[in-house]
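Minutes, methods subgroup
Present: GH (chair), OT, SY

1. OT presented the first of two proteins processed in the latest run. Sequence and structure tokens recorded below as shown on screen.
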Amino acid sequence: MIAVKDIAYVRYQATDLDTMEAFLLDFGLHRAARTDQALYMRACGEAHHVHITERGKCNRILGFGLLSQSADDLDNLGEHLGLPVENNPEPGGGRRVRLTDPAGFIVDVIHGQATLPHLPHREPMQMNPASGRSRLGKVIRLKPQPSNIMRLGHVALLVPDFRKCFEFYRDVLGFRASDSYYAGPPENMIGAFAHCGLGANYTDHHTVALIAAPDGVARLDHSAFEVLDLDDVMQGGEYLKSHGHTHAWGVGRHIQGSQLFDYWRDPFGNKVEHWTDGDLVNDDTPVGHAPISNDAFSQWGPPLLPEFFK
């Protein structure tokens, strides 16, 4: 129907906004806006916010936002789905179509949201590999601090009906598979890493990952935030560890997507990822198809323990 161009934000509900904000500041985000009922956190990039927490009686994932390529696309989506195109009532404004996907997640497709000036940050580190050395006469000296989060990169969703969800994201929002998983025979596809279908233009290996929920319960597995470089992954992890936060898995390098990754849990149990150095693909990039197993998630890194999936 349309092809969205990127992810905008992820939306959680939590019982304590102060506790969430304190963690997110340590994680590397910055406050963009706050009301009595919601917290909006930004990255260093121009997006008004990339993480929303709504105050509520329980802790849960609500959904996420996606960016429409144009106002016309947003109007066409609303007409196709029989949903209103409304003024976005949240900080940053713009217009949105709010829909519910087949798994029950709230998905805002948004256009015209305000942007903010970039926040200051260091440049990515120059490396001196065995060949092609470029850091000449310069040293690296880092001070303890949170990661420099540049943007939200993707969400990974566990869904009760994988096929129905994949077809929805493909046919309604224009996503295309970059890699997929199967269980048993190869035709039994149970997971897909999907990129925004932007034709020949290169984009992230995946903006939405969909995997069949083993217990049939829909949930967000994790949201993932891009940082500057490997030093930023490691430095941010050391900062989180020194402040008593809970580590989930990493550091390692994924197979599908190739990202260097490190996973943490916020105070409410949600998994959040720092990553850097991911693959870029377009609609002509060959689609991978691999069997799913615990060994299918990383090329190197620590063992993947069962509690990671809880």
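2. SY then presented the second protein from the same run.
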Amino acid sequence: MNEWLDPLLLSRWQFGLTTMYHFIFVPLTIGMALTVAIFQTAWVRTDKAKYLQLTHFFGKIFLINVAMGVVTGIVQEFQFGMNWSDYSRFVGDVFGAPLAFEGIVAFFLEATFIGLWIFGWDKLPKKIHLGTIWMTVVGSIASAYFILAANAFMQNPIAYTINEEKGRAELTSIWELLTNPIALAAFPHTIFACFMVSAGLIISVAAWHLYRNQHLETMRPALKFGLWMMVIAGVLTTLAGDQLGLAMVDAQPMKMAAAEALYHTATGANASFSVFTLGTPDGVHELFSVRIPYLLSFLSTHTFDGTVEGINNLQAQYVTLYGPGDYTPTIWITYWAFRWMIGLGLAHMLVAVVGLWLTRGGRSPQRTWVWKIAILSFPMSLLAMSVGWVFTEMGRQPWLVFGLMRTADGVSPGVTGVEILISLIVFTLLYGILAVVEFKLILKAVQKGPDDAPVQDAESGAHQHAVTVY
């Protein structure tokens, strides 16, 4: 029973659950902001009513996610003080800087222009109103960058010095911190993945309506847009992921070794990538595997004869550098999260490519199963990004800040396991209720579909549309 009341264990569970819940809304919000901006731009340029309908329709989903994302994000940041006060005291001067930028610059920028966009319909000139949603896009992407810069410090700590007298890390260069190689590599990979999540939602929603033969004038172009967005964003995510992999190997070689469950250093053909492997947990005995020779070497070094360090070798190095301890992540989590991320990403890219082929020239698939698979695009894309984040964070363990602070050393010393357990139960129940509310709101908006096309004024020729109340 005492193990289940361990403050460290419960704090990790609480932060992990709140982070994963918050992360449901983040990629969709970022991706949908761009989607709404593109549809509104198309309406301003062409004056076609279908683009205005799509702007309002996906704008509702966007705003629902913004509201939920803000609430869950605030709770997540409070945990740095509640559950991880030793971490906050030690690296707060460094880690807090990009978070401050995110709150003061990006968040307020995003919030201000969202407000102008919501209440500016029929009050602001068309192009100025369009500018407000594009500024919202800029704010949401900037917000993501500052968060990733903070996280990059945990993955690859730079731009700091240790103040021995005060016993804490202090920032030496904000520019160096914000241009952390991990942040520069993770940013495009994350943003393009957000666009894939948004594309997955568009495909799912459009397929659901087209399967029922309704809202054809708006859902057909929406489906085509979502399919192309998925393919383009998928290719860019893959390319950016390759660069992130190189940066990861340079900063955290143990994470790459754990992703492959590679226990012994390998070179060339022996540094193969296992598509699927069954074996003993210690890596001594491999019962069955499907492998691609040279691929792990190429992913890690961009050469086919490169050397990839193994878990056992790195563990020995870390004991020498950091002292006794187990520096190995939970292998089965990192191994399978890495593969689910890649597999699901490729799967819904394939769905998009097949979808473009089946809908070419205005065609419409007649088989029911085609539409049902398309409807799964959103769950697949969201799950792919979620397990990717699990891999990123779990692959860093047992470090809270790699090479600088272990996770066990960052938990709040004055918080008991019972207190954390109570808050964990409360958060779980509260978030469960919010999840039901969120799901019903989105489902209601999706099932209703776009509003009717606005009526054109006979005298002015302008489209008269009611101000949408979000």
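Chair's summary of item 2: Strands lie at 160-163, 168-171, 266-267, 273-279, 286-292, 307-308, 399-401, 405-406, 455-456, 463-464.
Next meeting: continue with the remaining queue.
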